[in-house]
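Support request from a user on the community tier.

User writes: "When I paste my C-alpha cells into the form, the page sometimes reloads and wipes my input. The last time it worked, I copied everything first. Here is what I submitted, just in case something in the input itself triggers the reload:"
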C-alpha cells in the first residue's frame, strides 16, 4: 500500500488489523525498513491491534530523492500517514532515528492523537557538547562531517540476529538499496537535534527501551536515563544483552516489554 505526502513523495506502508481497533505505528531507524517489525507486527495483530509500519522517505520501497531529508519533514510524513489512514488515537514506537521522528512529531503537533510512546535506544541529544556527555561515540559539532558515518560502519549488534530475519532484511535491502550518500544529510540532521526539552515535558506514558550493550550510547547514558527520566510518566527499561537493535537481537524479551507497556 502507498500514499502521497503533501510534498508529492510516495511512501509505502503496511496496515494490518482493522480500523477501529487500537492502533500502534512502528517506525524504523536510519537505514532501517518496515520488515524489521514483522515478528511484533504479527504478534500484536493476533492480539487485536491495528499495526501500521512504513518505510521512511529514502528508505526501503518508498521514493528516494534528495529533498526533505530532515527530521521535521519525516515527522510531517508521519502526520500525513496518520491523516490518510484516519488514525486519531495511537501508540507510536520508534527505534533510533524513529524515536527522533516521534519527538519531532510531538514538538510540532502535540499529543492529541497519541496515547503512549515507546522509544528504542535513542538519546534525546546525539552530539557530545560541554554540557552533554551522552552522545553517539565521540561525535561533536567539530567532527560531525567526518564521523557521522560511524553509525553505519560500526557493528551495532551484541547478539546474533535470527538468520531467517537477517536473510529477509538482506533481500529487501537488495531489492531497494539504501543510498547512503544521498541520504547523508538526513543522518547529519538527525544527529544535531536536541529533544531534551521535549522528553522532559512529555505527559503521556513513555517507555524508553535501551540496549544494555549498546555501542552507540553506553552504560553511562543508560544510568543517566534511569536517574533523570524515570518518573510517573516515563519508564526506563534496559534489555541487558542487547546492542543498538533490541527488537532484532532479543525479540522475545523486546515483545514482552512492549506488550506489557501497551496493555497497562
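"...and here is what came back when it finally went through:"
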Amino acid at each position: 500500500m502507498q500514499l502521497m505526502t503533501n510534498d508529492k513523495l510516495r511512501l509505502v506502508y503496511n496496515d494490518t488489523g482493522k480500523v477501529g481497533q487500537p492502533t500502534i505505528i512502528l517506525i524504523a531507524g536510519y537505514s532501517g525498513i518496515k520488515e524489521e517489525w514483522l515478528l511484533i507486527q504479527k504478534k500484536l495483530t493476533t492480539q487485536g491491534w491495528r499495526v501500521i509500519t512504513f518505510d521512511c522517505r529514502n528508505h526501503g520501497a518508498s521514493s528516494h530523492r534528495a529533498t526533505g531529508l530532515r527530521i521535521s519533514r519525516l515527522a510531517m510524513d508521519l502526520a500525513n500517514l496518520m491523516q490518510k489512514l484516519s488514525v486519531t488515537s495511537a501508540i507510536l514506537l520508534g527505534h533510533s532515528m524513529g524515536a527522533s521522528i516521534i519527538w519531532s512529531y510531538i514538538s510540532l503537533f502535540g499529543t492529541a492523537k497519541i496515547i503512549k510512546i515507546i522509544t528504542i535506544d535513542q538519546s534525546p541529544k546525539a552530539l557530545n557538547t560541554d554540557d552533554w556527555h551522552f552522545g553517539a561515540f565521540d561525535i561533536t559539532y567539530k567532527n560531525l562531517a567526518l564521523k557521522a558515518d560511524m553509525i553505519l560502519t560500526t557493528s551495532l549488534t551484541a547478539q546474533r540476529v535470527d538468520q531467517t530475519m537477517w536473510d529477509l532484511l538482506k533481500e529487501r535491502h537488495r531489492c531497494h538499496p539504501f543510498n547512503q550518500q544521498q541520504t547523508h544529510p538526513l543522518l547529519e540532521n538527525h544527529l544535531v537535534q536536541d529533544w531534551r526539552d521535549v522528553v522532559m515535558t512529555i505527559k503521556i506514558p513513555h517507555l524508553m527501551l535501551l540496549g544494555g550493550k549498546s555501542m552507540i550510547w553506553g552504560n553511562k547514558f543508560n544510568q543517566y536515563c534511569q536517574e533523570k527520566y524515570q518518573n510517573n510518566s516515563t519508564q526506563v527499561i534496559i534489555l541487558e544483552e542487547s546492542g543498538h537493535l533490541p527488537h532484532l537481537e532479543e525479540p522475545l524479551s523486546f515483545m514482552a516489554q512492549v506488550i506489557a507497556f501497551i496493555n497497562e
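Agent notes: The reload is a front-end session timeout and is unrelated to the input. The radius of gyration is 17 Å. The chain has a mean pLDDT of 95. Escalated to web team.
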